[in-house]
Design a protein that fits this description.
With about 325 residues, the chain is an alpha/beta fold. The chain folds into two domains: about 120 residues, Rossmann fold; about 140 residues, Tumour Suppressor Smad4, CATH 2.60.200. Helix content is about 20%, strand content about 35%. The strands form two sheets. Strands 1, 2, 3, 4, 5, 6, 7, 9, 10, 14 and 17 form an eleven-stranded mixed β-sheet that branches. Strands 13-12-11-8-15-16 form a six-stranded antiparallel β-sheet, with no helix packed on it. The N and C termini lie far apart (about 65 Å).
Length: about 325
């Protein structure tokens, strides 16, 4: 990859979380000849950025990120996703985990100096992330990298969501039924390990094409998650009465769906670029973040190798 000479910095909303790391980053960037760029909001949070090693942008993250080679995000997955959405597909972003899970992070917080060194020498890799394009009842569109969620309504009352799949060629429109549930999640492969995973939906490895549809607390035994073909479009209709549903893209509310209205979701092109300085595969990342480690006190014994002692029918005891 191209060496990074101009780097946008985004940090955790709480200045105390990444404060010491910002000072390390400033010193390392100066040593490597990397110019740091930060928005006015970031400089207000971290006075260390007001020194000679930082150039201040006057506007938002997207404004400050113009003409930057890459971005580095010292925060959790939520801040990283918002940064990716603002930057678009032109600027790769490296996440350094200062949050809870950090599944999307490409470097650990205790390896910040080496991460910056690898960016400065072009020794990093980039994963292109396809997004979801959303049409909210014809009133406008938005995009998401992780997922689109329709939820809310009236507390204590289930929602009724009708959904259908429109084929890529526009020939068939398949009604998939109406589901009583708390909401619906439509996720990209990257987003399949987020809200979709919590709902018991399937996890898609990065690189698999398709959109996952899963339901939040469905009040039926018939609602099963489905992976929709990458070029097909999903329509979701608010079939209930009363309160509108909230529509969220990557956890941020982008509108409301009134009773009777329909939102459409389809897979779009590359929406963002995620940078990594480690060589961890998706599968190792998935295992380390979500799998429960199994520890055995002794050698593992297969069930077929076990010897079952005879039972004394008269006493019910087991022979030693």
């Amino acid at each position: 990859m191209d060496a990074v000479r101009r780097l946008l910095l985004v940090t955790h909303r709480d200045p105390s979380v990444a404060g010491p790391a910002v000072e390390v980053l400033c010193a390392t960037a100066e040593r490597l000849g990397v110019e740091l760029v930060a928005s006015a909001v970031e400089v207000e949070k971290h006075p260390a950025l007001g020194g000679s090693c930082a150039t201040v942008g006057d506007g938002s993250t997207s404004d400050a990120g113009e003409r930057c080679d890459a971005a580095i995000v010292l925060a959790g997955d939520g801040t990283l996703l918002r940064t990716l959405a603002q930057l678009g597909p032109d600027t790769p972003a490296l996440g350094v985990n200062f949050g809870m899970l950090g599944f999307l992070s490409g470097a650990s917080h205790d390896a910040l100096e080496s991460a910056l060194e690898r960016l400065a020498t072009g020794n990093y890799r980039v994963v292109e992330l396809p997004g979801l394009e959303v049409d909210l009842a014809g009133r406008g569109g938005t995009t998401a990298v992780n997922d689109v969620v329709a939820t809310g309504g009236i507390t204590g009352r289930v929602n009724e969501l009708g959904w259908r799949v429109l084929s890529a060629d526009g020939v068939s429109l398949d009604e998939m039924g109406t589901v009583a549930c708390d909401g619906m999640v439509l996720a990209t492969p990257v987003g399949s390990t987020a809200y979709n995973l919590s709902n018991g939906g399937p996890v898609l490895a990065w690189g698999v094409e398709g959109t996952v549809v899963s339901f939040v607390a469905p009040h039926t035994l018939a609602a099963r998650p489905l992976i929709v073909a990458p070029k097909d479009e999903v329509e979701v209709q608010h079939m209930g009465r009363g309160a509108p549903l909230k529509v969220l893209a990557d956890g941020v509310q982008v509108g409301r769906l009134q009773p009777g209205e329909t939102l459409r979701v389809r897979r779009g092109g590359v929406r963002a670029r995620l940078a990594f300085v480690d060589d961890t595969s998706f599968y190792a990342r998935y295992r380390d973040n979500f799998a429960v480690p199994m520890h055995f006190g002794g050698p593992r014994v297969r069930a077929s190798d076990r010897v079952v002692a005879p039972v004394d029918v008269g006493t019910g005891s087991v022979d030693a």
